[in-house]
Amino acid sequence: MSQLKMGFRWFGSKDDNISLTQIRQIPGTKQVVGALFDVPVGEVWPQEKIDALKQEVTAAGLKLEVIESVNIHDDIKIGLPTRDRYIENYIQTIKNLAKAGIKVICYNFMPVFDWLRTDLHHQLADGSNAMMYEQAKLPKDPEALMAQMKSGSRGFSLPGWEPERLAALQDLFDAYQDVDEVKLLENCKYFLDAIIPVCEQYDVRMAMHPDDPPKPLFGLPRIYKNLADMQRIEKLHESRYNGFTICTGSLGENPANDLPAIIREFVPKDRVPFMHVRNIKFVNQQGDFHESAHPSSQGSLDMFEIMKALHDTNYDGYIRPDHGRNIWGEDGRPGYGLYDRALGITYLTGLWEALEKM
């Protein structure tokens, strides 16, 4: 049967209070999911910086084969004439990553906001805290949301919330004014048609991350919300290198999404090089939720059925636990503490062992 390539997202020695030594001590964890966070979006990732990151990870006894994320410049998503320059930069970054042995690039095609929550430190009954989304508390003004996210970050950088990119927020919204879902899909196809032949040549697989939350917000279109969206995206460019990151938490934020069915649809097609497996807890009928510990009993998603779907389809790709709580007095990056994600890995590998022995 297949073996999971278990990983742990790491933000680098300069911006993560978790060390590679600690990550290596999590049973079954062989991979670090990393990135360069000091290169502006749209610019080429320098080979020397990629190589330095790879050397740092391998020196700690771990592998670096998945990058999350090489973010896409808004000019590409909007479809501006300048997009070709940024696509060429992206292609060069793919080539540079391939030279360092990178096999998968996780990315998203979300306009403006990479992901969002209304509370980054929601207090739970057990004394831990986790990120939460409540529709009624979503500010109507995007600038207010930005201020809210910044104050809740407690000094940590938030992936996808680059301050230099979002500095002129109203200008960015104005640029997206004529971009609807159809146009965003067209621009995604333009991007994929340009990069996938390079990915095939250099053996680097693209893995699009779902929209989070999986619904339109602030009038911005969303193209990866459910199974039907995924079927459209796979047809934009027919290649196993045009793949998905299936994030159970993001897709699971819509209770209508059948996560095991989505897995059974796309894993056999070899379109899922990367999995994010996490749980969430719905708090009302309106779909408000907070993030939870990974076990099924702690949230609203059936993690056994999710892992069983992966097992039944012989999944052998990369996988990592996703957002967890801050527990045991830890005050880490929202969603990315050490202890709860380590517990998540132990739980997921325990489920996998049980499935192997059934």
TrEMBL record:
Recorded metabolic or biological pathway in which this protein acts: Carbohydrate metabolism; pentose and glucuronate interconversion
Cofactor(s) the protein requires to work: Fe(2+); Mn(2+)
Keyword vocabulary terms for this entry: Iron, Lyase, Manganese
The keyword Ribonucleoprotein is annotated on this UniProt entry: no
KW Translocase (keyword) present: no
Catalytic activity: D-mannonate = 2-dehydro-3-deoxy-D-gluconate + H2O
EC number: 4.2.1.8
A Pfam family hit: UxuA
Listed NCBIfam families: PRK03906.1, uxuA
Family: Belongs to the mannonate dehydratase family.
Function: Catalyzes the dehydration of D-mannonate.
Protein name, as recorded: Mannonate dehydratase
